[in-house]
Design brief:
Blueprint: H1 2-15, H2 17-60, H3 67-73, E1 75-78, H4 92-95, E2 98-101, H5 128-144, H6 149-154, H7 156-162, H8 167-199, H9 209-237, H10 241-270, H11 276-289, H12 296-311, H13 323-359, H14 366-377, H15 381-412, H16 417-420, H17 427-430, H18 443-449, H19 451-473
Antiparallel strand pairs: 1-2
Helix pairs in contact: 1-8, 2-5, 2-8, 3-15, 5-8, 5-9, 5-10, 8-9, 8-19, 9-10, 9-14, 9-19, 10-13, 11-13, 12-13, 13-15, 14-19
């Protein structure tokens, strides 16, 4: 009986003009988004790899110079695109795509495409994720809002029920019919994107592409199921199809537009980010007064005294290392915990905001799905923070290598402070600093981080299914 009901529902949907128009628009937008995302993804990947090669080459071929000056000349770290960034761009356009790495400074990422976009452009890129998160629920609503309310108004619901069809059979049959129509629209478009990715000759940074796609498919399937059973529940509850449509459109608008914006504002109110000017001023003052209230020059003098005692000497000239380079490295290291503290505060604030937004997902299923989608696509905050951490670790190693070489080389030549300024290092010396490589978060770490979001989606699905069962159990065959 369920199969017969599903077949009837599916055939009626196929004949319905609403399905032809909405499905056509959906397919056109989804394919366009996937192809445009793929083109942008491949272009960005090629540019990123070329820019990183050029930056590495410039570092090696910067010309003979003092090694510490080379550390000031610096290098760039460019962020690779996430493994499924063509599907979900996430925060990539807003977080930055490169970091300038130089001595004595930890810099923020630069290269944010959103800053060059108009207000409409910043609303969001047309992506496969956006289409599925916003338009797939709308397609389900348009196909299913008359499932019960429309038949009640036309009088066919009484006839169907008089044939001995139970409420649960009717629910599952209609769910299967509507779900099949939606899958018929969405799955071919997803397959096109998957085929394009598999045929692409791209350097994909991230493990487990197949697992990521499977987890994404599961998440979007659950998300579609949530709106499917919510639609059927409202249709069974509403007295008229018009009422059902109005309620469902309101739920869709709240979940897709109002809730994400409200969650963002609430999270920023609970964990406000510091103003940039005051943050920079506080960090600079902290550097001047020292981590524990002891100015850096005092700490350096104590360190020098410790070296004198260690080597049983009385003057800088007797040190087995070149003191100016050793001093610069010590000052660099004194800044490390201060950078960790102040940059860590910003990271903690944004992480806390993200987790609050995920918790608010209890009122809108789009929120946990959005986090899962960005996480599995490699375009979320976690991925960006890992890029910043890898870039800073690389910067510190670069500076330490240059200062260390200068210290040992100058000491071996008995160089004075002035003569060391003219000490030259060449490409061979610069080559001791390896090229920058980004090590993205593991897939297992990503899945662990989003366990609560997966659980939230499953709970939403269970709640929607329960609501649909209750609504059909109490459903009447007469319009009120």
């Amino acid at each position: 009986m369920i199969r017969s009901i599903a077949r009837k529902e599916f055939s009626e949907i196929l004949r319905d003009g609403r399905f032809k128009w909405t499905a056509g628009i959906m397919v056109l937008l989804l394919i366009t988004a996937m192809l445009a995302g793929y083109q942008k993804y491949s272009g960005y990947t090629n540019v990123q790899q070329m820019a990183q090669r050029d930056s590495n080459s410039q570092w090696l071929q910067q010309g003979d110079k003092n090694p510490h000056s080379a550390a000031h000349y610096g290098n760039y770290a460019f962020k690779p695109a996430g493994p499924l960034a063509f599907f979900d761009t996430g925060i990539s356009n807003y977080a930055g795509t490169a970091i300038f790495l130089e001595a004595h400074k930890q810099n923020f990422s630069i290269g944010r495409p959103a800053t060059d976009q108009s207000a409409i452009g910043r609303f969001g890129d047309l992506s496969g994720a956006m289409i599925l998160q916003l338009l797939m629920p709308l397609l389900i609503i348009f196909l299913g809002f008359t499932a019960f309310s429309g038949e009640r108004e036309s009088g066919t619901l009484r006839q169907v029920m008089s044939m001995g069809v139970t409420n649960h059979q009717l629910l599952w049959g209609k769910a299967l019919g509507v779900g099949t129509a939606v899958v018929m629209v969405v799955v071919p478009c997803i397959l096109i994107g998957g085929i394009a990715l598999s045929m692409a000759d791209l350097h994909i940074v991230g493990e487990g592409i197949g697992t990521r796609i499977a987890a994404l498919s599961f998440s979007y399937l659950i998300y579609g199921g949530i709106f499917l059973f919510l639609t059927l529940a409202v249709s069974a509850w509403a007295s008229t199809a018009r009422t059902a449509l109005m309620v469902l459109i309101g739920l869709w608008a709240f979940s897709g537009f109002l809730a994400p914006k409200a969650a963002s504002e609430i999270s920023k109110a609970i964990h406000p980010s510091p103003a940039f000017g005051s943050w920079v001023s506080d960090m600079r003052n902290h550097q001047i007064r020292g981590l524990d209230g002891e100015p850096p020059f005092v700490t350096v003098e104590k360190y020098k005294a410790e070296l004198f005692k260690k080597y049983n000497i009385n003057s800088i000239a007797e040190l087995p290392v070149y003191w100016p380079a050793t001093r610069m490295q010590k000052l660099e290291e004194l800044d490390h915990p201060i950078f960790d503290l102040h940059f860590g505060t910003i990271k903690d604030d944004y992480t806390a905001q993200r987790r609050i937004q995920d918790r608010i997902g209890v009122v809108a299923p789009t929120l946990p799905l959005r986090s899962i989608s960005m996480g599995l696509s490699g375009t979320d905050l976690i991925q960006h923070i890992k890029f910043l951490e890898d870039g800073e670790a690389y910067r510190r190693n670069m500076v330490a290598q240059m200062n260390g070489y200068l210290s040992k080389a100058a000491a071996s030549m008995n160089a004075t402070f002035s003569s060391s300024n003219y000490m030259r290092a060449d490409e061979k010396v610069f080559g001791i600093v390896p090229p920058f490589e980004f090590d993205p978060p593991s897939l297992s770490a990503t899945l662990r981080e989003h366990r609560s979001n997966f659980a939230m989606l499953v709970l939403w699905f269970a709640a929607a299914l329960t609501l649909a069962l209750l609504a059909t159990n109490r459903m009447t065959v007469e319009s009120s």
